[in-house]
């Protein structure tokens, strides 16, 4: 699975995998036409046919590219010792330093990973139609998806041995008594915000990726359309109850949007420069489409390499245009490592309500660099997939859930339990900040095992 994804993250060819058939139970339901076909239902004791509940289903849409799909390794073993590899979920479960956090994921009686019955997952990343001439054109007539209670196995390609941020997100949601949650995961590897996910408000600007003769330079990204369509059709009356019988009679409510993406945009100077604007436009468009003007949006920043970005341990000196700048931007030219930093700064800036008063409220950038684990503490050395470290993916999801909780409750009043320390605060354009620390102005999780190397 890991080798299959390497090409998908190439900066020269954006490919998306069409999954092979899974060795899982395939169950067909009498559903609307877009949902008919091969359905993999994760068995769980929560599915009780005929039971009718009342209450709210809080719907969270998690979108992005391969790191939102999820490449956290669950149970890979060392081929010599047959022990769990460092950084796998199984390793975290048995490591006394991390067991306190991860033991809630394990069902001791069943001797397997726990099914969280109050949180459902719907994950569609199958049946993608590919275009010609090397371009990837996702279609909307997809027929295969995963559905069930939250547990392991909702990683990239429906891999039963992989997780994404959804695991930490769902296990750390704070739901009102009697309510449930649904995570709709729409993520595809090797995709760009500038093209594949291009939001409607960005169609009035030039698209540098529209180079084919028949390409419309003002076209809304196909994956943006897929996401909108999936959510709308899933939440039509009567649909959820057919997929999750224990949700029958409950009222779905779109509660938040989570975004984890950025690698492919960082491969191109133009896409990098447009990232902040495109991110703001996506949030505005989703709020309009879902009729949620204050929909909380949690942006997990692209913290590849942790604080030592790409192994260089530096912040370019020209990544700030001055105290009166209208946009954060690194003058990177051909420096790809610099563009990685620029993407992160753009993600942080998009969540700055002083810079973007049009967003009004409820947007946070979530720090992920604290959760990076180097290859020697991970199952692999594949940096753009956070070395397949399950602790990293879990903690990113947990931080996004905490951020979401704060924003959901802050819409109408004070936040119960205080504010999440992983939230990043960026100085406004009128700030007189001059040092690197002041310019980036973030707060760190004091419990992190990996500290930032301060620069003079």
Written overview of the protein:
The chain is α/β, with parallel strands linked by helices. It has one domain: Rossmann fold (3-Layer(aba) Sandwich). It contains 12 helices and 12 strands. The chain has an 8-stranded mixed sheet with strand order 1-7-6-9-2-10-11-12, with helices on both faces. The protein has a two-stranded antiparallel sheet with strand order 3-8. The two termini are 42 Å apart.
- Please indicate the percent range of residues in DSSP E strands (runs of 2 or more): 5-15%
Helical fraction: 10-25%
If helices are DSSP runs of H or I spanning 4 or more residues, what is the number of helices?
12
CATH topology name, in short, is: Rossmann fold
Give the biggest beta sheet: 8 strands, mixed
Level-2 CATH architecture:
3-Layer(aba) Sandwich
Please identify which CATH superfamily we are dealing with.
SGNH hydrolase
Radius of gyration equals 21 Å
Number of domains: 1
Alpha-beta classification: alpha/beta
* CATH uppermost class: Alpha Beta
Q: How confident overall, as mean pLDDT?
A: 73
Morphology: globular
Following the backbone from N to C, one meets helices and strands in this order, namely: HEEHEHHEEEEEHEHHEHHEHEHH
The tally of beta strands, per DSSP, is 12
What is the topology, as strand order, of the major beta sheet? 1-7-6-9-2-10-11-12
Query: Roughly how many Å apart are the termini?
Result: 42 Å
Which regions are unreliable across 5 or more consecutive residues at pLDDT < 50?
Answer: 1-52, 127-142, 210-217, 310-329, 413-456
InterPro entries: Carb_Esterase_6 (IPR052940), SASA (IPR005181), SGNH_hydro_sf (IPR036514)
Keywords: Hydrolase, Signal
GO molecular function, one term: hydrolase activity
Protein name: Sialate O-acetylesterase domain-containing protein
């Amino acid at each position: 699975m890991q080798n299959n994804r390497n090409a998908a993250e190439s900066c020269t060819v954006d490919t998306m995998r069409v999954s092979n058939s899974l060795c899982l139970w395939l169950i067909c339901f009498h559903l609307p036409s877009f949902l008919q076909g091969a359905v993999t239902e994760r068995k769980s004791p929560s599915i009780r046919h005929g039971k009718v509940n009342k209450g709210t289903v809080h719907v969270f849409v998690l979108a992005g590219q391969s790191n939102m799909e999820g490449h956290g390794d669950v149970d890979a073993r060392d081929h010599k010792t047959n022990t769990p590899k460092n950084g796998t979920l199984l390793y975290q479960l048995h490591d006394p330093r991390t067991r306190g956090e991860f033991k809630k994921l394990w069902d001791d009686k069943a001797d397997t990973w726990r099914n969280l019955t109050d949180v459902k997952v719907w994950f569609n990343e199958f049946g993608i139609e590919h275009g010609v001439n090397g371009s990837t054109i996702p279609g909307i007539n997809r027929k295969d998806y995963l559905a069930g209670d939250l547990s392991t196995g909702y990683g990239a390609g429906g891999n039963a041995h992989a997780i994404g941020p959804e695991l930490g997100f769902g296990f750390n949601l704070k739901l009102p008594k009697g309510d449930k949650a649904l995570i709709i995961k729409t993520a595809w590897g090797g995709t760009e915000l500038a093209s594949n996910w291009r939001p409607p408000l960005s169609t009035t600007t030039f698209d540098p990726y529209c180079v084919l003769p028949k390409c419309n330079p003002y076209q809304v990204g196909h994956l943006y359309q897929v996401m909108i369509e999936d959510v709308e059709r899933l939440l039509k009356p009567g649909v959820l109850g057919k997929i999750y019988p224990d949700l029958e009679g409950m009222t779905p409510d779109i509660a938040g949007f989570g975004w984890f993406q950025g690698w492919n945009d960082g491969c191109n100077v133009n896409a990098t420069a447009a990232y902040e604007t495109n991110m703001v436009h996506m949030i505005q468009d989703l709020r309009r489409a879902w009729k949620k003007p204050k929909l909380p949006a949690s942006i997990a920043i692209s913290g590849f390499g942790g604080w030592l970005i790409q192994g260089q341990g530096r912040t370019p000196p020209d990544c700030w245009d001055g105290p009166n700048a209208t946009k954060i931007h690194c003058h990177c030219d051909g420096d790809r490592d610099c563009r990685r930093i620029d993407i992160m700064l753009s993600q942080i800036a998009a969540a700055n309500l002083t810079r973007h008063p049009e967003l009004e409220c409820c947007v946070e950038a979530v720090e992920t660099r604290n959760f990076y684990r180097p290859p020697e503490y991970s199952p692999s050395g594949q940096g753009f997939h956070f070395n397949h470290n399950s602790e990293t993916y879990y903690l990113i999801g947990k931080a996004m859930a905490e951020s979401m909780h704060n924003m959901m409750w802050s819409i109408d009043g004070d936040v119960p339990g205080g504010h999440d320390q992983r939230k990043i605060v960026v100085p406004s354009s009128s700030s007189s900040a001059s040092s690197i620390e002041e310019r980036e102005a973030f707060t760190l999780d004091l419990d992190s095992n990996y500290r930032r190397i301060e620069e003079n």
